[in-house]
Amino acid sequence: MKISAFTFIRNGTIFGFPFVESIRSVLPIVDEFVVNVGYGDDDTLERVRSIGDRKIRIIESRWNDKMQSGGYVYGQQKMIAQFNTSGDWAFYLEGDEIVHEDELEKIVAACRRHKDDERVEALTFDYHHFYGNAQSVLDSPGWYRREARIIKNSVKSCAPDGLFWHVLADRGRVTRYPRAAHSGAHIYHYGWVRSEEEMNRKSESVQKYWSNSYKRIDYGEIDQEIIKPFSGTHPAVIKEWLPKEEGLFRANPGHVLTKREKKHRLMLKVERALGLELSKKYFIAVK
User: Fold this and answer.
1) Whole-angstrom Cα distance, residue 195 to residue 189?
2) In 3D, which of 42, 10, 17 has the Cα closest to residue 198?
3) What per-residue string of b and e applies to 102-126 under the rule 16 or more CB within 10 Å gives b?
4) Which residues pair with 284 in a beta bridge?
5) Looking at residues 74-82, what average pLDDT do you find?
6) CA 23 to CA 33: how far, in whole Å?
7) Beta bridge partners of 181
8) Beta-strand relationship, 284-285 and 157-158
9) Are strands 122-131 and 133-138 parallel, antiparallel or unpaired?
10) What residues form DSSP beta bridges with 131?
């Protein structure tokens, strides 16, 4: 069995991504790691090269800045990387996502267990969405709690906006989400613990790819009820990168809930009352 990993990244240093730590977190269990580095304005390419691992294969690409609809340029860059993998499984990590060393063997075991199961096209992970600092995580149906991050390379798939896979079915005439089993592991998502300056620099730069206007991000403008303390341990590879603030992140006490946040508060109450899980699923669960 062969496991490939892949990612795409551009201006990772300018935007504050822990992309080197992300790549390193899964190198022990993959046979290759394809990194699609877009031509940019910083030292991202040099930092990827400096990892110095023979498993890493770098592709250099130029983004189509004229493609500014629905994040499709992200889909293009993701698939450039995925189409260059050669494993039985393709493991996608974004530049702010890390895997814990204690769960690496779980991932390998899940890949091995489902390799020949035709019902299973992908593997899902539970998410820790850190917010504001490394001691705080978000718990809300508005933030996906589980998502597919590994897919079989024998499956005809695409990612139109770079985020979630679609599988081409019915001879490619329609698409659906992949059928997925749970890996038993987690993804540690650190994008929202970058400094606000880095987050806004990134947001201002990339919103054009979704035809959106830039709106400044303020970490304090969020519903305090969805911020929970994190009680686990962080992956060893990310610990030096993490901000040093301690305690639960505190939102602006004067924050006015948006319609979306009010909706998610109601959904949380329903979840707790009925024991449901109502977050959006971008996969079809296989028991």
Assistant:
1) 15
2) 17
3) ebbeebbebbeebeeeeebbbbbbe
4) 179
5) 96
6) 8
7) 123
8) unpaired
9) antiparallel
10) 133, 192
Element (DSSP H or E) covering residue 109: helix 104-114
* Structural element, H or E, at residue 135: strand 133-138
**Range 89-105 average pLDDT:** 98
Tokens representing 212 are: 């959106």
What is the rounded CA–CA span in Å between residue 123 and residue 113? Answer: 11
From residue 200, give the alpha-carbon distance in Å to each of 14, 81, 106, 192.
Answer: 11, 26, 36, 11
Is residue 98 within 8 A of residue 187, CB to CB? The reply is: yes
Beta carbons within 8 Å of 16's beta carbon, 6+ residues apart = 194, 195, 198, 199, 201, 202
Residue 143 CB contacts under 8 Å (≥ 6 apart), including other chains: 127, 129, 226, 279
**What is the pLDDT confidence band of residue 129, given thresholds at 50, 70 and 90?**
very high
Model pLDDT for residues 184-218, shown as the tens digit of each residue: 999 999 999 999 999 999 999 989 888 788 889 99
Q: Give the C-alpha separation, 55 to 29, whole Å.
A: 10
Could you tell me the two tokens for 286? 């296989």
The Cα–Cα gap between 78 and 277 comes to 29
The CA–CA distances, whole Å, from 142 to 89, 159, 213, 277, 279 equal: 29, 21, 21, 11, 6
The radius of gyration computed from the CA coordinates of the chain, to the nearest angstrom, equals 19
Q: What mean pLDDT, rounded, does the chain reach?
A: 96
